[in-house]
Design a protein that fits this description.
Length: about 325
C-alpha cells in the first residue's frame, strides 16, 4: 500500500481514521474548584478570566473554529490567544511567530512541551486547538468539538453584551445531527479524501463529501444560515472547511468534482460569512496554503506551494440576507 501521511491513523482498508482527542477536561460554570485551583474531582476546571490560553494555527480548520467562536462571543478578552507557525518541524507546532520563539505567557517554544507536561507518555500527534492552563502549564482540552460548545454555554458570564447564542437550547437536537453529518462528510470528509491510501476509500469519501455539499446547498437555497435566520455553531463549522476548499482541498486533497466557487449557493453563503465581522478577518490564505502544501510530504513531496487561486472573489457581493 502507498505511503500514508499518518501511518498510525490509517486503516488496513486505506481509510484515514482520525486519532481520538487526548485531553477532554472541561472548563464549566458548575466546577467545584475555586479560582486558581486545578480541576475538581469530576475534571471540571473553573471559569476564570485571564487564566486560560487558546493555542491555534491560522491554517487549521479545527482551531479556526475555536478562534471564530471566541471572537464572536467577545471571549478574546477573557481567554488569551497564542498563534503557532503554520509549518511544524520534527518537534511539531512552534511559537516562532513570537519574540524569542516562545509563547509570551506559557514561555514554551513548542506546543509539545505543554502536552508532555500534562502527559509524559503521550505519543500521538500534538494538535491544535489546545486550551492550556497558564497556572499549571497543563493542557485542559484539545477536544475541539466540546471546546466551542463550552465557550457558548459555560462561559456565558464573560460573553460580551449582545453576543450571539450559537448553540440555542431549542435547536440542539437538530443542530447536533446536522453537525455530525457535516463533521463526517465535510470537515473530516476532506481529510478522508486527502489522506486515503486506497482508491476505494478515497472514492467513498469523495462521494459522501459531494453528496453532502449538494444537500447543504439545497438546504441553504431558501435560508440564509443552516438553521434559518440565526447564525449558529453549525455555520462556523461548515465555514472553516468551505473557506479552505478552493485554496487547498480541491487540489491538494483531490476534492475536485468542482470548486466551491462553482457551487453558486454555497459560494454565496460562504462569502456572506466571510464578510461578517469575526470570520474573514481571521482567515489567512498564506498560512493555510503553506501549512497544507508544505507539511504533507506523502501527498506533495516537492512542498511547492501553488500561487493560486486568486482570493479576490471572497469580497465580491454575495446577494444574500
Ligand atoms: N485534535 C484533532 C483535530 C485537530 C487537528 O488534527 N489539528 C491538526 C491541524 S489541522 C494538527 O494539529 N496536526 C498536527 C499534526 O498533524 O502533527 C486530532 O487529533 O485529529
Amino acid at each position: 500500500m502507498a505511503q500514508a501521511q499518518f501511518t498510525r491513523e490509517t486503516a488496513a482498508t486505506g481509510e484515514f481514521v482520525r486519532q481520538p482527542n487526548r485531553f477532554t477536561d472541561r472548563v464549566t460554570a458548575d466546577s467545584d474548584a475555586a479560582p486558581g485551583d486545578g480541576p475538581d474531582e469530576a475534571g471540571r476546571w473553573p471559569v476564570q478570566a485571564g487564566r486560560y490560553r487558546l493555542i491555534w494555527s491560522r491554517a487549521c480548520p479545527w482551531a479556526h473554529r475555536a478562534r471564530i467562536v471566541l471572537g464572536l462571543l467577545g471571549l478574546d478578552e477573557a481567554i488569551g490567544i497564542g498563534t503557532v507557525d503554520p509549518i511544524r518541524d520534527e518537534r511539531g507546532w512552534r511559537f516562532t511567530l513570537d519574540p524569542d520563539g516562545r509563547d509570551p505567557v506559557l514561555g514554551v517554544e513548542y506546543l509539545a512541551q505543554t502536552y508532555r507536561a500534562s502527559d509524559p507518555d503521550f505519543v500521538g500527534r500534538v494538535t491544535v486547538p489546545a486550551l492550556v492552563d497558564t497556572v499549571t502549564g497543563r493542557v485542559v482540552s484539545n477536544d475541539y468539538p466540546q471546546l466551542t460548545l463550552d465557550f457558548s454555554t459555560q462561559w456565558r458570564a464573560l460573553h460580551r453584551a449582545g453576543a450571539p447564542d450559537l448553540y440555542p437550547r431549542e435547536l440542539r437536537a437538530e443542530l447536533d445531527r446536522l453537525m455530525a453529518d457535516i463533521h463526517r462528510d465535510v470537515n473530516n470528509g476532506v481529510y478522508r479524501c486527502g489522506f486515503a491510501v486506497g482508491q476505494q476509500a478515497y472514492e467513498e469519501a469523495y462521494r459522501a463529501l459531494f453528496d453532502r455539499l449538494d444537500a447543504l446547498s439545497e438546504r441553504l437555497t431558501d435560508r440564509r444560515y443552516l438553521m434559518g435566520d440565526v447564525l449558529t455553531e453549525a455555520d462556523i463549522r461548515l465555514f472553516t472547511t468551505l473557506v479552505r476548499f478552493d485554496a487547498v482541498y480541491h487540489n491538494h486533497f483531490k476534492c475536485n468534482r468542482n470548486k466551491l466557487s462553482e457551487m453558486p449557493v454555497l459560494w454565496a453563503y460562504a462569502r456572506d460569512l466571510y464578510q461578517t465581522p469575526g470570520f474573514g478577518d481571521t482567515v489567512d490564505f498564506d498560512h493555510i496554503k503553506r501549512h497544507y502544501y508544505g507539511t504533507h510530504p506523502a501527498i506533495n513531496p516537492t512542498g511547492i506551494v501553488p500561487l493560486g487561486p486568486d482570493p479576490s472573489g471572497w469580497t465580491t457581493p454575495h446577494g444574500r440576507g
